[in-house]
Fold each of these.
Amino acid sequence: MTNSSDRASDKEKALTVVVIGASGDLARKKIFPALFSLYSQDLLPAKTNFVGFSRSDLSPEEFREKLREHLACRYLPRELCGEKMGSFLSLCHYVPGQYDSADAFLDLYQAMRGIEDEDQANRIFYMAIPPSLFLDVSRALGASGLVSCGDHLQAWSRAVIEKPFGHDRASSDELVAQMAQIFTESETYRIDHYLGKEVIQNLIVLRFANQIFEPLWNRSYIESVWISFDEDFGAEGRGGYFDRYGIVRDVMQNHLTQILALVAMERPRRLDAIEILNEKVKVLRAVAPLKMEDFVLGQYVGSDRGGVRRPGYLDEESVPSDSTTPTYAATVIRVDNDRWRGVPFIVTAGKALERRATEIRVLFRRSEENLFKIDGETPPPNELVIRVQPDEAIYFRTINKVPGLRMRLAECDLNLRYAQAFSGPVPEAYESLILDVIRGDKSLFIRKDELETAWDIFTPALHEAARGARKPEPYEYGSEGPEGALELIRKFRSV
Ligand SMILES: NC(=O)c1ccc[n+]([C@@H]2O[C@H](COP(=O)([O-])OP(=O)(O)OC[C@H]3O[C@@H](n4cnc5c(N)ncnc54)[C@H](OP(=O)(O)O)[C@@H]3O)[C@@H](O)[C@H]2O)c1
């Protein structure tokens, strides 16, 4: 994300990417396809190898076939695709083994020594496994001598881990402390894949490369900020995982809090990871911890909307029939600093809603002294909409004269649609993030203090919820969400 160029030495040095949990969904559907995209664009070091490790008993051929199913040539002409895929797959190796077995990791060690034709290959260990296994695996990696530690050695080792990082502040701290025994903070890359999305990376550019926004980006001109995550499907198939976490931990504490930090932070002094992360931490520290009463919580129930039967959350096989895990949450976050004091950040996230979209909406203040009226009313306020997914777009709602001999006004959009404005495919978040791990650019990863601060905002309410303090409000699958949330939205959105 920052202006850093590849370090020449890292491009020349051999690299081994070890994917632990290689038989899983994340590995097959996201990580290996992203690695292939980077490989097909010659963005990886010339001597790069890929090693999958998991318990499944697969031959190397079976493993490669599993990977092939999800590879796509997004950056290559069709005629070059087959050959490039073949050469990529020939670099993909597989070692089966248990996650807590020293012998299995010695097998991995031997396999890697056989593949790496020099002593000093850089190594990435991508933990594509349930978080309960992070520690066992890190310890086994350390014990087998696979991790070279400290920055002084000629080759580096980096660990990539995916959320959830714990389930509250204390468990997150413990995970961080235990992992730190094997991988230092500078060697640990905590992924929030939302930060790798193009539109999210563009936030900092939009705000700070365009002079028009900064003078307006404050409480004098902005009435409210809306950050929403709507999914049009339920927990389908992921009920077991989801029920342990709920929507606040799954989406709000990480993805949406990260977005809020990027929208609200001060301008970093420089475009480097330390400065950017410092500003993100600073703004998150200005947010007071939330209480349970600050939330509207919901849980979807079955519906027959449009003549289609949709199951409720409690109908999911892997969900306990008395679960009170919220599948919807809405809250109002206040940032107590000079820029934002008094401006509500309305943050909502829900599953099984009527639409699928992740959006940021910045609502500007309406001026009562407007010269113009629409149907006798002051025109609606300007609004900047940043759509993260699907169909990435940024548009600005403005008031314009409708062509004609009369003075008639209408609200129209100044519109940037990525698909029309930019040629070529929009990179997947994982492509960008994995490349940053190789380059050692940590600006899009979650630093320890950032993680602590994000948990501090949500932990008190999560603990209150765990004491069974509140049952979530029911809302129908395919609806706009629970009534309590709609009331909250109406309260802050008068237009
Ligand atoms: N899928 C996504 O898009 C996504 C997005 C964000 C974050 N994540 C996070 O990324 C990690 C991996 O996600 P995933 O969807 O790939 O997970 P997964 O499919 O459930 O697990 C990955 C692999 O880990 C092994 N495994 C699963 N459960 C295990 C258990 N209880 N004990 C021992 N091994 C077990 C399995 O391999 P073997 O049986 O062959 O060992 C499985 O193929 C998780 O931390 C998840 O929260 C995933």
Amino acid sequence: MWSTDPSIKDIEQLDDSYKTISCDVLIVGAGGAGLRAAIECFERGTNALVVCKSLMGKAHTVMAEGGIAASLGNVDPQDSWQVHFSDTMVEGQFLSNWRIAEIFAKEAPDRVYELEYYGALFDRTNEGKIMQRPFGAHSYRRLCYIGDRTGLELIRTLEDQILARNIPYMDEVEITCIFRDSSGTSVSGCLGINIRSGELLLFQCKAVILATGGCGKVYHVTSNSWESTGDGIALACRAGAELMDMEMIQFHPTGMIYPAGVRGMLITEAVRGEGGILTNVKGERFMEKYDPKRLELSARDVVARSIYTEIVEGRGTPNGAVYLDIRHRGAEYIKNKLPSMYYQFLEFAGVDISKEKMEVAPTVHYQMGGIRVDPETCETNIQGLYAAGEVACGLHGANRLGGNSLSDILVFGRRAGIAASAKVKDSPAQQIPDESIRAEIGRILAPFKSTENVNPFALKEKIADVMWKYVGIVRNEQDLRQGLTEIGIIRLDSKKVQAKGPRAFNQSWIDSMAVWNMVLDCEAIIRSALERKESRGAHTRSDYPKKDDDNWKVNVVTKCEQGMMVQKIVPVPKMPEEYEKLINREESLSWKKNVK
Ligand SMILES: Cc1cc2nc3c(=O)[nH]c(=O)nc-3n(C[C@H](O)[C@H](O)[C@H](O)COP(=O)(O)OP(=O)(O)OC[C@H]3O[C@@H](n4cnc5c(N)ncnc54)[C@H](O)[C@@H]3O)c2cc1C
């Protein structure tokens, strides 16, 4: 915790002094993944410190609505980890790492019960068990939930545990760089900024767990919070870590469409889970055409593409949307099961969803790609650098199932905590090369020296427009190349960004760093999208409309080498035969026939 909360200091803009803080494990991020990692480190006696760029208790995870997926079998006793594993692999279109999916499916129920033990108040069945609801492409009712405020309860519960254990944390601290030792193989520390005072902070540590969430803010229309600027991906990539499947960006089928200020805001899949029906402007229930078996509860990529098709083929509403209708459930049921949705529409759009239909369209929601990690430990190819949660890659393949993220962040947050604790035990601290510290300080203070008057906020907007226009739900070579060119121009401009005024709470300075991270993320997304010459899951190419299992059942790995982004194709790890049998269940196959 901020033991002595520094008052806002009068720091000279170009003052390059820094304060040194030492710990064994630095956890970057206080969402579900970071907090669960911190609890694990504490339980193992590890000297860990949590830092986050927003306030403690405010991480993006609080926005999660619909629920957390785990095969408890409370409502459908036939459910099991094997079916959850199979659903995850099938809907990930076989790009997921099977071992990550196996660990996930096996450990998710324990993480839910643990959350309950920590104090989370789940909705209940009549027998008093944790309630579970249906969600898209899950074979059984599997999502444990707290109304439509599951993420809020998750963070509240974990935060209580952090406070009860007195685990140290520093909020409003932005990490800008991960340092390696002089040999370049191991992590040695990080540089950060105290946003409140503008002070520079050098963290000396033996391990870093990145739990920085996703990069949805690189798109114009997104459900994500302001924090999701993909910092962790850029930090890791600059430090030499490998990224994977960056082209896989999930478009959630149902985002709000108006008023403009809330465009992209999520309408949870729980609305469809509770019986919501999608219709076009002609009143047709169009999912009957695209997935007659699963209808509105088909996989997210399928529903998002179906809505997109209805809109571009002229069957959308005048606002460029389709309708989502839950009125048949009645006002009391809606207010009880979907309270946030009820008030969200009433307050922002003046729509009473118990009486009127909602207008919805796809919105950027989640990054399936991210930092490539070891399945058991979450360690990257850089020793001592770990990644867990949305920033990491390997579980969701080409399409994440709703609810699988909240269990992902708990399962792998814990595992990262275990592995990092083991790593730092008895291992010596590595030196941070002085020239690396000086170079990073020079880089981050550059906006105060700039006289070019380039506004970083305007660049953020430009990035989001370019990505929405050229790297959207349906892509093609020409658009992607144009997007890459425009991002390249923004990258050049980003070198000239200017920050004026004092360093404390300097939004232009914070935006400058976001822009540098975002352009790196976008380049990785576009280059990977160009590389994958097929359509699979969330990645749809109009010039390669078919899924190509013979050539593209592979992962696209991206790395920065000497300032250049390079890519390689690696085969997806081969699943053991007994797991192949699990996957080839009759119902999985019949879904695949219907849907793909
Ligand atoms: C509206 C909405 C609803 C959702 N509903 C569900 C759902 O019902 N079920 C489900 O499974 N998933 C859901 N998701 C997805 C899920 O919420 C996220 O994937 C998940 O919470 C990510 O958790 P995380 O711990 O990886 O990261 P986050 O919760 O995003 O936390 C990231 C942390 O990193 C910090 N950070 C970032 N960059 C830096 C930096 N440079 N320096 C310091 N700190 C930094 C942030 O401040 C924050 O504390 C939803 C997402 C949205 C947007």
